What we know:
Layout lengths: L1 E5 L13 H15 L3 E5 L24 H4 L3 H19 L5 E4 L9 H4 L4 E5 L5 H8 L6 E5 L2 H7 L8 E3 L19 E4 L8 H11 L3 E4 L5 H8 L7 E3 L5 H10 L2 E4 L9 H8 L4 E4 L4 H5 L3 E4 L4 H11 L5 H10 L2 H16 L9
Parallel strand pairs: 1-2, 1-3, 3-4, 4-5, 5-6, 7-8, 7-10, 8-9, 10-11, 11-12
Helix pairs in contact: 7-12, 10-13
Amino acid sequence: xxxxxxxxxxxxxxxxxxxxxxxxxxxxxxxxxxxxxxxxxxxxxxxxxxxxxxxxxxxxxxxxxxxxxxxxxxxxxxxxxxxxxxxxxxxxxxxxxxxxxxxxxxxxxxxxxxxxxxxxxxxxxxxxxxxxxxxxxxxxxxxxxxxxxxxxxxxxxxxxxxxxxxxxxxxxxxxxxxxxxxxxxxxxxxxxxxxxxxxxxxxxxxxxxxxxxxxxxxxxxxxxxxxxxxxxxxxxxxxxxxxxxxxxxxxxxxxxxxxxxxxxxxxxxxxxxxxxxxxxxxxxxxxxxxxxxxxxxxxxxxxxxxxxxxxxxxxxxxxxxxxxxxxxxxxxxxxxxxxxxxxxxxxxxxxxxxxxxx
Length: 358
């Protein structure tokens, strides 16, 4: 198939990834190309050059309009709108069989566009006002929507999801996250260093449990880092930087437990399954999709409960490392995910031609 992958443009789709959405787009492009599809990645122009790129914007928008300063401001909205409007027009005229839309933008949801080029839209966030209406009116036979977890499905459609919506769990290539049969007794945390990811609570729980902890990830919120994270470093707690996938996999494999501390309704938690593939049980806060992702591969504690998380750490150190690895292979392996993506593409491309397109 000839597939247009439409990404978000806040950050580039390249390693090291800022977060799960960038990783999702990169793994999807890589996986579909490996299966013989012709893939064009519509993303920021500073994304990974190994892919065939059609830039939505010349560079990711944070480079010119930092989100923390320009969120909701007219100049940022106009900049992003212009890029997506032109990209959607190029897709419509580009002879694509299907669009996989990960943009979190309203234009690709319009039925006048999805009727021309069948579309699968993946929603990676809880419902928010700027997008909710456009999602609600967008389902059609040629437009299927996916969410990453059961909790997210309930959040978007509390009265019941339409037939054109389903759960598509995120996934990874287990081979890229090698299993290590024994850890060093330490903990590890990774993700964007920002308040809603809760690294300061992970530190507090690790201290309470008496284990060393290393943090990895991009420092997205510098004020939060300075006020809440940096003062907690030392005494077995350290920051290991922002690493690419290969280096991060090696660091994860050395540890014995992964701390997953969402302080918001986390739609999935890609970092958790990366750690699980390496053999790490997960000590997690019970927020968003955490319980659904972790399953029998760890233990969840009440949200924001540091003492409970410390107890979960102790329990996780008794779990056989083969359990989390097996859970990834059975539920979150990339080939399963790609099979499901291809089935969705086939379904929307079989939909009857719409009068909207005409």
